[in-house]
């Protein structure tokens, strides 16, 4: 699997060339840029062009982008509502769509090819209306992303609305052939289980978010620090028709000293080989 590092690991810091160089030294062949304004300000032409210039002269690939979860610089702590594509209020759904489109426009200069999106928040429920909102959002974002050379991926979360079974229902019933899946292994471990999630989503999986937990909450631990059966998970992924990219998505608040990060990243990639 292609080794990719999510910049989620550095979420508390402004994303700058030094962090990209750290990713490259650690064995990553690409990065998934986490679009949070305090980290990567996709609304700032200066910030976008700074990173675009670095990628243009280095081998590290801007593989994908994770869509914004909040529209502010405080991850919602200041009271801003989440970016929620299936919010019951139409105005909030429109705001969420507009925020994601702002982030997508960075692809005009930073040539990432995939955009990972969340459908809602962890307490959103499944209903015909949720499916309608999700379908509308995916159709619209897929059409907006296509001319930019970007393919939209939807991620399984821990909500009832985004179980692997419900995601595949949305994609198949709405004939969303232009949308694929980012399988989050940590979320799948909480429910319904990694093996079952891989079985349900199957060939729609084009990348996986790699992190660990103890099966109860989303901890974003290093692989092996939780209770995921990694040999079994990797064996199941090897049975897929096309090998997905492995995006290491580690928590930014685990307290690892900066000096140990390259070694920990490299060991994690080796575990996935």
What key attributes describe this structure?
273 residues; alpha/beta; TIM Barrel; eight-stranded parallel barrel
What features would you describe in this structure?
The protein is built from nine helices and eight strands. With 273 residues, it is of the alpha/beta class. The radius of gyration is 17 Å and the shape is globular. 36% of the residues lie in helices and 14% in strands. The relative contact order is 0.14. The protein has one domain (3-272): Divalent-metal-dependent TIM barrel enzymes (TIM Barrel, Alpha-Beta Barrel), CATH 3.20.20.150. The mean pLDDT is 97. Helix 1 (17-25) links the parallel strand 1 and strand 2. It has helices at residues 17-25, 45-56, 90-104, 128-145, 164-173, 185-190, 194-201, 230-238, 261-272, and strands spanning 3-6, 30-34, 61-66, 114-117, 151-155, 180-184, 205-210, 245-248. Helix 3 (90-104) packs parallel to helix 4 (128-145), helix 5 (164-173) packs parallel to helix 7 and helix 7 packs parallel to helix 8. It has an eight-stranded parallel beta barrel with strand order 1-2-3-4-5-6-7-8, surrounded by four helices. One of its GO terms (molecular function) is isomerase activity. It comes from Telmatobacter sp. DSM 110680. It holds the Pfam family AP_endonuc_2.
Low-confidence stretches: none
Mean pLDDT: 97
User: Order of strands across the biggest sheet?
Assistant: 1-2-3-4-5-6-7-8
Annotated CATH architecture: Alpha-Beta Barrel
CATH topology: TIM Barrel
């Amino acid at each position: 699997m292609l080794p990719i590092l999510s910049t989620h690991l550095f979420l508390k810091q402004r994303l700058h060339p030094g962090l990209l160089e750290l990713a490259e030294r650690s064995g990553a062949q690409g990065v998934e840029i986490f679009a949070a304004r305090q980290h990567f300000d996709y609304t700032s032409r200066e910030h976008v062009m700074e990173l675009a210039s670095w990628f243009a002269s280095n081998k590290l690939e801007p593989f994908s982008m994770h869509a914004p979860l909040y529209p502010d610089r405080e991850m919602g702590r200041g009271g801003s509502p989440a970016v929620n594509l299936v919010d019951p209020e139409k105005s909030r759904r429109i705001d969420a769509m507009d925020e994601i489109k702002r982030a997508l426009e960075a692809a005009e200069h930073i040539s990432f090819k995939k955009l990972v999106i969340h459908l809602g928040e962890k307490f959103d429920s499944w209903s015909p209306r949720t499916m309608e909102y999700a379908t509308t959002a995916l159709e619209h974002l897929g059409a907006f992303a296509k001319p930019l050379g970007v393919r939209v991926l939807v991620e399984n979360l821990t909500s009832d609305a985004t179980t692997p079974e419900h995601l595949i229902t949305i994609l198949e019933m709405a004939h969303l052939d232009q949308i694929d899946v980012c399988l989050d292994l940590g979320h799948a471990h909480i429910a319904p289980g990694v093996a079952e999630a891989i079985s349900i989503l199957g060939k729609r999986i084009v990348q996986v978010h790699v992190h660990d937990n103890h099966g109860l909450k989303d901890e974003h631990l290093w692989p092996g620090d939780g209770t995921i059966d990694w040999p079994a998970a990797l064996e199941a992924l090897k049975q897929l028709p096309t090998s997905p990219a492995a995006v290491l998505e580690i928590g930014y608040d685990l307290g690892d000293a900066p000096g140990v990060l390259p070694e920990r990243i490299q060991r994690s990639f080796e575990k996935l080989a």
